[in-house]
Hints:
The chain crosses the membrane at residues 90-111. Keywords: Membrane, Transmembrane, Transmembrane helix. Belongs to the PHAF1 family. The chain is mainly beta. The chain is built from four helices and 22 strands. It has helices at 23-32, 34-37, 104-111, 227-234, and strands at residues 4-9, 13-14, 17-18, 42-44, 55-59, 64-68, 75-80, 86-90, 93-96, 118-120, 125-130, 133-138, 168-172, 204-207, 211-214, 220-222, 239-242, 245-246, 255-256, 267-273, 276-281, 286-291. It has two domains: 4-188; 204-291, no CATH class. An eight-stranded antiparallel sheet has the order 4-5-6-7-13-12-11-10, with helices on one face. A five-stranded mixed sheet has the order 3-2-1-8-9, covered by helices on one side. A four-stranded antiparallel sheet has the order 17-20-21-22, with no helix packed on it. The two termini are 31 Å apart.
Amino acid sequence: xxAIVLDLRPGLGIGPFSLGMPICEAFAQIEQQPNIYDxxxxxxxxxxxxxxxxxVISFPDHGFHxxxxxxxxxxxxxxxxxxxxxxxxxxxxxxxxxxTLATFVAVYAxxxxxxxxxxxKDRGVYTLFYPGLSFAxxxxxxxxDCCHDGEAExxxxxxxxxxxxxxxxxxxxxxxxxKVGVGSLMDKASAPPLPSGSLYMEEVHVKLGEELYFSxxxxxxxxxxxxxxxxxxxxxxxxxHQKQEILGDCGRAAIQTQGSTSNPFGSTFxxxxxxxxxxxxxxxxxxxxxxxxx
Length: 294
């Protein structure tokens, strides 16, 4: 497969993937463009302690992966680990891919002058930083003297006239002054702050057998409420599905049930909002409420 071209947005994202987006939205983007992203997709997480390490969506054919915070499940870091497999478009210029090497000189010419980077002598890697963007370059052992006191003269060229080619590109939130790169520097990346008034990960209080209370918006949804009442309080749902389908969250493929329901009176529709589903009886009243994790 040839290299695809994605728009590079330093500090914001790449292609359709934006820093801070929930993991369900990333899966929705993959499903919308299966010919591009869904060839080979790996989802990695720590099964024994799922909240300890990142959830990673990896695209090995395209040489990049997405790192999601395990708690909020929001995108905190994008890493291009094989620059020859992915071509990045910045403004009107292309860099990376099999035909346009992402050399130090090419990066410096495209993104402009910046402060000297950091040389990690243990890894033999020199990292150049821009706001929300970093490039890591391997330094051959015979040229480590070019990086005096952890820094180097810019743009970096070796005595034989060659220049290093980037081995990793990191895209991260630029709202802070943190420098994110390889190794321990990778852990400094965090998802951007949620916008004011965002309902993502809103705290919901459950009174068993009585109601749901949404703490941010202040809505009360009692059991027995009509679909019209729910629409009035929460707005239009992400989707409406027959009882054989249940949406785990908006954007995720429906899961087929076994033809039965937890509601003994039978239900007709499931109204799916993000991470919540209301099962409605034939008489039009709510029978059950199901909360999902992204």
